[in-house]
């Protein structure tokens, strides 16, 4: 996405993200055995240079999970949780009392990675079906570091070819608890153009 999207384009992506969020919520609820709702709060087409600031101070610690997709279209997905949100979300995922999680060890990182894998695969599968393209996902890669470092690999990979990328602030709710995270969907430039052309032809009234 070399430039800002039009309002019409963003409206199309909003529908895709909302549908993907619903599918992910259903899949996660089935997997976990209790309701977990994932919903978009804010959708924006942001400059890549602003990525490190979206989740707060770029020098503050965040937990990030990165997945790469390949096939007819290629690019990356990143889920980023500010550290406090990551703790809260682990409590939700693992049915712990509020405030129980105070560090991200192997078990906690595994839980976040599995969530990211399921949610991203649901989103990509829905997108691929609507756009009629093939998209294969890599295993998730997790990192806990300063936000700027968490996003470094994604930014460096795309800096030369992409100026803007879709970001979504996401709210997660489960049985009275809620927390927020950030979803970055960053197709490579040629892939973004292909996806948008295909999505514009979708009969949304049949969604």
Shape summary: globular
Span between termini: 25 Å
CATH homologous superfamily heading: CheC-like
- Work out the oligomeric state of the chains in this entry: single chain
Q: Which topology does CATH recognise?
A: Chemotaxis protein chec
The amount of helix comes to 40-55%
- Major beta sheet summary: 7 strands, antiparallel
Number of helices: 7
The succession of helices and strands, N to C, reads HEHEEHHEEHHEEH
CATH class: Alpha Beta
By CATH, the architecture is named: 3-Layer(aba) Sandwich
Mean pLDDT: 84
Number of strands: 7
Query: Spans with pLDDT under 50 lasting ≥5 residues?
Result: none
What does the radius of gyration come to?
A: 16 Å
Give the class from helix and strand content and strand pairing: alpha+beta
Strand content: 25-35%
- Compute the number of structural domains: 1
Write a concise synopsis of the structure shown:
Strands 1, 2, 3, 4, 5, 6 and 7 form a seven-stranded antiparallel beta sheet that branches. The chain is built from seven helices and seven strands. It is α+β, with helices and mostly antiparallel strands and 207 residues long.
């Amino acid at each position: 996405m070399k430039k800002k999207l039009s309002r019409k384009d963003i409206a199309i992506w909003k529908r895709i993200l909302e549908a993907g969020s619903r599918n992910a919520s259903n899949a996660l609820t089935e997997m976990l055995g209790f309701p977990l709702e994932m919903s978009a709060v804010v959708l924006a087409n942001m400059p890549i240079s602003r990525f490190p600031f979206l989740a707060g101070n770029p020098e503050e610690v965040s937990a990030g999970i990165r997945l790469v997709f390949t096939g007819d279209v290629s690019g990356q997905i990143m889920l980023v949780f500010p550290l406090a949100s990551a703790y809260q979300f682990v409590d939700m995922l693992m049915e712990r009392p509020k405030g129980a999680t105070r560090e991200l060890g192997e078990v906690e990182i595994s839980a976040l990675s599995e969530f990211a894998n399921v949610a991203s695969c649901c989103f990509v599968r829905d997108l691929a079906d609507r756009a009629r393209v093939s998209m294969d996902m890599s295993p998730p890669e997790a990192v806990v570091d300063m936000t700027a470092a968490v996003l470094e690999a994604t930014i460096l990979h795309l800096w030369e070819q992409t100026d803007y990328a879709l970001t979504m602030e996401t709210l997660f709710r489960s049985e009275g608890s809620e927390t927020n995270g950030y979803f970055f969907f960053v197709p490579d430039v040629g892939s973004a153009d292909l996806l948008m052309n295909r999505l514009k032809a979708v009969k949304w009234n049949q969604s």
